[in-house]
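anyone seen this seq b4? input:
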Amino acid sequence: MITLKTVRVEHFAVAGSFIISRGAKTAVDVVYCEVTDGTHVGRGEGTPIYYEGETAELCAEAIETRGRQNRPLTREDLLKTMMEGAARNALDAALWDLEVRATGTPLWQLAGLPEPKPLVTAYTISLNDPETMKIDAAKAAAQGYPLLKLKLNGEDDLLRVAAVRIGAPDARLIIDANEAWGDVNLEEMTAALKKLGVELIEQPVEAGLEEALDGRVSSLPFCADESCHVAEDIERVAGLFQAVNIKLDKAGGLTEALRLSETAKARGLKTMVGCMLSTSLGIHPAFHLAQTADWVDLDGPALLAQDRDGGFTFAGGTIGLPG
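predicted toks r here
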């Protein structure tokens, strides 16, 4: 029988600050848990979806409650008994990890995914004034990151992107509006951004107001983030977006994320595998799913002041498993 062994909240400082349209973060709290079959121990981590009202403390409480229930602690049963979110993600990850350790079979084989290899990952340029973003982009480019993800807020965004283009003239660019473009003329904005070399726009409008995109002319594809958490959301966003950002904390674990990826691709949507601020433990399952994605945004550990020991390597703009 599998049981819950440990659950706790852990605190990690951010290198500098992480700024988006909703505010700045200088640290992140994650929920950590362990499950055991009596011989082996599996570990998992989740980062609360703060814009959904989650906190690390509430996630820890949800995991403890699930651990006390007289039900089998399996990935399949979690889908029936827990809502999507960081708590389920942490438990789901721990159960995958436990199976890896108990069977000696790599995660990629258990999940039916390709054998993992290093991947080009986006590097996030936090929202700031144009000059600061230009400097930050130049630093990232100098570190070898070929793909940059810019956090914007609907104000002076063209100036910010133009400044970044000066700082990193050869970089590929992704824009994350974080729901802040409700009043932006999307036809004019996307046409201008395309000239600056932008290739994708994440979540231009608020979740729940996706219909505002219906019939809008855009020179660039839109990627659903806050608007798409689980596989059932695909029917609602397909036709309005051309891609989805799959985050395991939103989906509630790799088990659901696999369903989400398959459903999205069946509807002709491209996929990005992204993450919240997290340690390498938190993005470990996502790295395996990212082997099948069109874009990869797994820089969460690279944005921390210090990652867990034995974490992913970030070199030359790629993310790779430790040697």
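The two ends are 33 Å apart (CA to CA). The chain has two domains: 3-110, 119-320. kinda curious what u guys think
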